[in-house]
Recover the amino acids of this structure.
RNA sequence: GCGGAUGUGGUGGAAUUGGUAGACACGCUAGUCUUAGGAACUAGUGCCGCAAGGCGUGAAGGUUCAAGUCCUUUCAUCCGCACCA
């Protein structure tokens, strides 16, 4: 007899990868008549560093589910693509002059190699690359659609500016007031430069996105994060008349969620950027102090402001505000704890009820008034807590004696009647700033004409192609390096034909990733961004996985999908039916993998160590539920290899003895029961993304098979079914070894398409069952009874147990409870 | 501060959703075997105890025949947002 074939991943894995490629095993027919299943993980930015175990987990999660669906007979489409515009390639280009196109292509090639070796069932005939012109042409088309509906607009916005680089900086690039690259003692502070930038009006969709959030089948905390991000709060706007410094004709609107505290107002605070500060502070006696304070505050980045715990501010001497409810005159201050970007950039300060105002009043010795009978902090913010709802108003004129909730409504109504305010809803979410003064992004398809303004590039003139440059440094005038491509820059205005210039800003990378779920459906279509009929068939995405971007990307994609749904191009308003947010895999010491620590692990290293991709995939799935953070433990990997090897051995041994069938079938019932139980468990666990218990169920089944083999040998006809079932069940996790064994078992097609074992529930039922017998809540015996035994028989069987007698100590039981199929509980 | 989770053996984690806590693995202990492999297989392994038995899901109460699961209080850890008026 020949020696048994051994399980050698490094031989079988490349073999089957080539086979799948050649046979187009994972190529989806997008026009298939079959029921469709569409799912994937957030696509990657192809960096020079390659993928690590975190990416391995990210893509393995959907791969397993998509494989299950393909095996169950669905047209299962696992797309693949690259989010390839971005900073690393551009920074590299600035340093070396190497075109980002070249480095990006190289990185993608290397990613492709890694993806294939992981055994992911992606359809490479439909790969997309967001930095290729056949993709970003349609990103530009999306921009034009939004522009046409008035959802893309320009606005002046302050940007951090480094004088040395002659370049804009993001918030994170400002460190202690200086540019991250120029933070020496002699380097200048960063300044703010006002630039005209493009925005998408996502705030128009804030309400409907918020309202739809609760019903999503998404990881719960992601939904909460999105709701917080949108930050809707309902409150009241109150109008305060100004007085002094020549501002008597001006008024300030303040937003508050606690209007019932308005009688406690003792001062008003304006944000340093508030326009009225610039206009009237110059007339104040302390104009210079105010000026200095404002300049100082505006120089701090938001991040720096956040770090400062102590509140600071200055009064605008001589400027007062009139409280609309009682005519009280209060001083006006400027302080940077009030943010220009929220509400109206001005607050009515109520130090008697608000901690922040209280702290400020203490520091600057401002008066404090309490507006409830309790004389303490009562409530602030959108909700009045139940235990405080009964507090009673005081010092509040005609509203004294009312409870807080009533007063809230009544004061708002009073203001509305007096024309001095109204109920209002505000949002934390701002419009989406999409302009980037960068080269490696999708050019904004706009032509700036002196006469016509910002004119959209006509659709038939798309794409606006990125020109190749010799030098990728910023242009130095606040515009992107594109401003240096003169041939590209100068064009005729599409409207009047006069000389004009292209917009040199490119789009935020999040724009590219806001619509790729549709492009995957028409990756090669050069007549439209996607085919709406395909979208009708395939959208929404059934399963979407990621471990990042809980707010930004996932909100932007929802915004785009809603927009195109309204235009009739997408069948549903939501892009992702089930969004699964997985937890990170940690380093062995429980810390995060990080570049600076250099503790990242390349999956290829694990694969090539001899354990193979199948063991890696299985181990990643087994280590913990995918949404639970868990450390990588290299000791655990051999256990997955061992498990696969045990299946391997069962099949190989079976093949050797196949011809020696005999009639002994004493374990068939047990064999079939174990197999069908496993089919049921694995199917439902994969669908519920509980891969760890799916694998443990298969391990249990394999353990049963070994036990039966020891007692019976391979003599029964049920073995073929059991082995084929296990091979099919393990295929989503370990596709290569499953394919090999499937062929060993005599099949000549792929196990991965249309082969999932069928559950026969009749095999799940056994003749007998084991019940626990409890006396006073403690297990005292076990009884084996017929599955169809009646309740009385079971109870008397339980009471007849010797140990039960002992614990009843001769007394009659007070009560005997039978829990069907579980236990008998006896109360003494 | 606000919001959201999560606390189970030496370790990762199971638990039919109120019904035999610790499945499946890692590790450890003992053994079998030899085609010495990254072996494989068998048995054991929550804690205390020689045993009978008792104890046991962060802690303390409660509901129940029965609580890891439900309720109240409390502690700890992690995550998100964070001067959002």
């Amino acid at each position: 007899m020949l020696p048994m074939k051994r399980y050698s991943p490094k031989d079988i894995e490349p073999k089957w990868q080539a086979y799948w490629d050649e046979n187009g095993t994972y190529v989806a027919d997008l026009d298939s008549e079959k029921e469709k299943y569409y799912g994937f993980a957030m696509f990657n930015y192809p960096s020079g560093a390659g993928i690590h175990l975190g990416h391995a987990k990210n893509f393995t999660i959907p791969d397993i589910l998509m494989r299950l669906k393909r095996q169950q007979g669905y047209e299962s489409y696992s797309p693949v693509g690259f989010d390839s515009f971005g900073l690393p390639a551009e920074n590299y280009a600035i340093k070396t002059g190497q075109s980002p196109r070249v480095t990006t292509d190289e990185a993608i090639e290397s990613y492709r190699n890694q993806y294939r070796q992981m055994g992911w069932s992606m359809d490479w005939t439909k790969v997309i690359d967001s930095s290729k012109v056949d993709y970003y042409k349609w990103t530009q088309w999306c921009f034009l659609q939004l522009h046409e509906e008035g959802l893309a607009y320009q606005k002046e916005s302050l940007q951090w500016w480094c004088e040395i680089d002659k370049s804009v900086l993001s918030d994170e690039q400002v460190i202690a007031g200086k540019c991250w690259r120029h933070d020496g003692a002699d380097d200048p502070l960063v300044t703010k430069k006002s630039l005209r930038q493009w925005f998408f009006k996502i705030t128009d969709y804030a309400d409907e996105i918020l309202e739809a959030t609760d019903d999503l089948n998404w990881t719960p905390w992601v939904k909460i994060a999105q709701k917080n991000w949108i930050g809707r709060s309902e409150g009241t706007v109150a109008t305060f008349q100004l007085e002094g410094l020549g501002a008597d004709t001006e008024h300030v609107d303040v937003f508050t969620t606690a209007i019932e505290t308005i009688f406690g107002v003792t001062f008003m605070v304006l944000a340093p950027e508030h326009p009225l500060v610039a206009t009237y502070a110059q007339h104040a006696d302390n104009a210079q102090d105010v000026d200095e304070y404002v300049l100082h505050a505006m120089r701090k980045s938001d991040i720096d402001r956040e770090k400062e715990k102590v509140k600071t501010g200055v009064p605008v001497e001589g400027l007062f505000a009139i409280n609309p409810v009682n005519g009280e005159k209060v001083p006006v201050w400027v302080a940077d704890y009030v943010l220009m970007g929220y509400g109206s950039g001005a607050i009515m300060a109520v130090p008697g009820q608000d901690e922040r105002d209280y702290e400020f009043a203490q520091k600057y010795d401002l008066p404090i008034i309490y507006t409830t009978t309790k004389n303490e902090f009562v409530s602030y913010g959108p909700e009045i807590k139940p235990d405080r709802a009964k507090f009673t108003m005081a010092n509040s004129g005609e509203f004294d004696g009312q409870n807080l909730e009533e007063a809230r409504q009544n004061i708002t109504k009073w203001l509305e009647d007096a024309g001095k305010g109204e109920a209002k809803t505000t949002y934390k979410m701002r419009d989406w700033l999409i302009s980037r003064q960068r080269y490696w992004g999708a050019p904004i398809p706009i032509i700036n004409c002196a006469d016509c303004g910002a004119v959209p590039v006509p659709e038939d003139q798309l794409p606006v192609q990125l020109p190749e440059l010799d030098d990728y440094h910023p242009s130095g005038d606040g515009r992107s390096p594109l401003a240096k491509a003169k041939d590209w820059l100068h064009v005729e205005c599409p409207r009047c034909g006069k000389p004009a210039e292209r917009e040199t800003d490119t789009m935020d990378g999040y724009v590219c990733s806001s619509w790729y779920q549709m492009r995957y459906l028409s990756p090669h279509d050069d007549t439209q961004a996607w085919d709406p009929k395909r979208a009708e068939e395939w959208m929404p995405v059934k399963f979407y996985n990621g471990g990042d971007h809980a707010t930004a990307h996932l909100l932007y994609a929802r915004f785009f999908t809603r927009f195109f749904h309204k235009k009739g191009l997408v069948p549903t308003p939501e892009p992702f039916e089930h969004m699964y947010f997985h937890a990170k895999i940690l380093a062995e010491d429980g810390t995060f993998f990080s570049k600076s620590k250099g503790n990242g692990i390349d999956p290829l290293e694990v694969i090539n160590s001899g354990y193979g991709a199948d063991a890696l995939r299985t181990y990643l799935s087994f280590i913990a539920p995918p949404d639970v953070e868990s450390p990588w433990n290299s000791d655990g990997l051999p256990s997955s290899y061992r498990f696969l090897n045990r299946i391997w051995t069962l099949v190989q041994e079976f093949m050797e003895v196949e011809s020696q069938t005999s009639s002994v079938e004493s374990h068939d019932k047990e064999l079939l029961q174990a197999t069908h139980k496993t089919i049921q468990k694995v199917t439902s666990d994969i669908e519920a993304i509980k891969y760890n218990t799916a694998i443990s169920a298969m391990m249990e089944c394999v353990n049963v098979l070994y036990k039966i083999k020891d007692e019976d040998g391979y003599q029964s006809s049920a073995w073929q079914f059991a082995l084929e079932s296990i091979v099919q069940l393990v295929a989503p996790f370990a596709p290569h070894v499953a394919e090999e064994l499937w062929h060993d078992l005599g099949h000549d097609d792929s196990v991965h398409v249309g082969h999932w074992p069928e559950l026969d529930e009749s095999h799940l039922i056994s003749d007998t069952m084991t019940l626990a017998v409890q006396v006073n809540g403690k297990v005292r015996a076990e009884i084996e009874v017929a599955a169809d035994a009646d309740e009385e028989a079971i109870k008397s069987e339980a009471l007849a147990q010797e140990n039960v007698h002992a614990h009843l100590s001769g007394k009659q039981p007070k009560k005997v409870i039978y829990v069907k199929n579980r236990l008998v509980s006896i109360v003494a």
